Amino acid sequence: MVRRLREVRALLGFRRLSPSTENPLVPVDLGKRSAKWYPGVEAWGEGIFIQFSETEMRDWESRVKDSLLPRLKRIAPRIEAMGWDESVATPRFLLLHSIAHAIVRRLSFDAGYSASSIKERVYSSTEGQGMCGVLLYTADGDSEGSLGGLVRMGEPERFGNLIQSALQDVAWCSADPVCRETTSTGIDGLNAASCHACILVSETSCSYNNCALDRRTLVGIGDVSPFFDLAALSNPGAR
Q1: Nearest alpha carbon to residue 66 among 172, 214, 223
Q2: Which one, of 136, 163, 130, 154, lies nearest residue 57 by Cα?
Q3: Residue 119 located in a structural domain
């Protein structure tokens, strides 16, 4: 539980809808004189950091290697064209990004914050010791800044129910069976089994333009072995 979180946002530039291949990022115009600073703002908030077991993650990655890697190899060039790191085109990232969206949507019901005010940070890497976690936080200067409702959901007696409810939400979509059977949707077909009715969030919440999502990695709704056993989580005697 991150009870006090500091975020500094700096404006480095912006991207056009049809960016130039030579200069995709349009820099901030700070005048004719060169400056060593950028316009920025400091905000305070709260959040929840969720770290996954590296051992459990590697076991799951080995189980889904045959079913996910062929598709990831096809979309890897598109992900690189978006300017993202190659680690985005991995089963680990799909899982972490998808669970982050599922929890954000659920928090909008349970924590008292609107979903658009909750942001994500995905920590995913298989190199060295590896990174395997997500940070969900809010940091705004208005009434949705730091009310305590978000960090309170990280308490043990509430967090388990939060995860279970989030997974139950994405196990069924009003657009099924079409949604769960779709393997190419969203920008450049970077998503699978994902739509606005089940797992997509507002653009202000997502760091990756609602791309690289696949709810099949979370629950058993397709031909991908899920990370979570929803039936076991629903059992009161399950850990």
Answers
A1: 223
A2: 130
A3: yes
